[in-house]
Design a protein that fits this description.
This protein is an alpha/beta fold. It has six helices and 13 strands. The strands form three sheets. Strands 4-5-6-7-9-8 form a six-stranded mixed beta sheet, covered by helices on one side. Strands 3-2-1-12-13 form a five-stranded mixed beta sheet, with no helix packed on it. A two-stranded antiparallel ribbon has the order 10-11. It starts with a strand and ends in an 11-residue tail after the last strand.
């Protein structure tokens, strides 16, 4: 089974520019690539920061591109998003009983849980008791394997400027997950605008580049800056089976070649 992991599209209204690039055009190229190369994907997950400014016009521009996908998609909210404004353009966006943009999707290999870590007006992520209650109920519902998708990473990755705006409730999230550790197959997140893989207290995770601008790999410990880079945009290709989870990063703007090597 194939899933596409897309993140941090940061679309602006009217095909405007951001960081000297056009997020709408970058997303358009991603959608074209997914449709052409991965039309067999079961669905696409976009892990937040759909818009750069969280306004209706930017979500309309985002929607014009993402709705061209030939497969279903799931939208998560990030720190740049505004859930109420997003719902104006995507009125069917699933929300839990407390209004958070949280939902689940069954697959032949387990359930995908889509978490809401957004805090209005803050770059920092939170996973409050109300949201934790939803996750607890989902985890206790059955004994299926679980795949978690969220915007903010719940742990530091060594990039101080980004670590300062990670999920603030990492310990609380881990306490929820720990009793189900044998079932947590993978954690997917965005926010960092970088390819990052590893394990967190035994849980495997991965993060993809965004589709517009990227964050430089700055491990100096500086907390007063977040530097950008012109690394190419990318999305993730996730292959699921009973035996393994395989994650590929696809630099989709690089020309595809059939020349043998």
């Amino acid at each position: 089974m194939k899933i596409v992991h897309l993140t941090d599209t940061h679309v602006v209204a009217g095909n405007g520019s951001l960081a000297g690039l056009c997020p709408g055009a970058r997303l358009r190229a991603a959608v074209d690539s997914i449709n052409a190369e991965h039309g067999d994907a079961a669905f696409v997950v976009v892990t937040g920061d759909l818009s750069d400014s969280g306004d209706v016009a930017s979500y309309e521009a985002f929607g014009a591109e993402i709705r061209r996908l030939r497969m279903p998609f799931h939208l998560l909210v990030g720190n740049h998003d505004d859930t109420d404004e997003l719902v104006r353009v995507f009125p069917g966006l699933p929300r839990d009983n407390n209004g958070f943009a949280q939902s689940s999707s069954a697959t032949p290999f387990g359930r995908c849980l889509f978490l809401d870590t957004h805090v209005p007006g803050s770059g920092v992520g939170k996973y409050c008791p109300a949201r934790q209650g939803w996750l607890r109920a989902e985890l206790e519902r059955d004994a299926e394997p679980v795949f978690l998708f969220m915007h903010h990473p719940p742990f530091p990755v060594g990039m101080s400027g980004m670590d300062d705006i990670r999920l603030a409730d990492g310990d609380a999230l881990h306490a929820l997950l720990a009793p189900h550790a044998s079932r947590i197959r993978h954690l997917f997140f965005g926010h960092l605008h970088r390819p990052v893989w590893g394990t967190w207290r035994g849980f495997p995770f991965s993060c993809m580049r965004g589709t517009n601008h990227q964050v430089a790999l700055d491990l100096t410990g500086a907390t007063d800056r977040v530097l950008g880079t012109r690394e190419p945009p990318a999305y993730g290709i996730v292959l699921l089976s009973d035996e393994q989870v395989t994650v590929h990063m696809h630099d989709y703007t690089n020309a595809f070649s059939t020349v043998p090597i």
